[in-house]
Amino acid sequence: xxxxxxxxxxLVEPGGSLRLSCAASENIRDINVLAWYRQAPGxxxxxxxxxxxTGITNYADGVQGRFAISRDNAKDTVYLQMNSLKPEDTAxxxxxxxxxxxxxxxxxxxxxxxxxxxx
Length: 119
Hints:
Number of helices: 0
């Protein structure tokens, strides 16, 4: 089963930028959905951005226009570029893969990477 490893988190000031990376252990070309979720303390995990194999993207309302999900199939890596960061973006960010479109498709999570936005 594919494994996902996130990196790129850290501490950044409001208005700053970070790029998260998610390296997969296997070919991501045909994975049905690749996505980023986040979970802030005391809150439920929420979808941030998702991408289909054909490049169709979907973003949460609060990050539209500030965040961008992308993929590099040659490197089996998914990215989340985060610009104009706000304190409310502080959370643990998780990479997620839904392998196929089947109802019982395997779903894989990374271990998470902490993003803290603070002055």
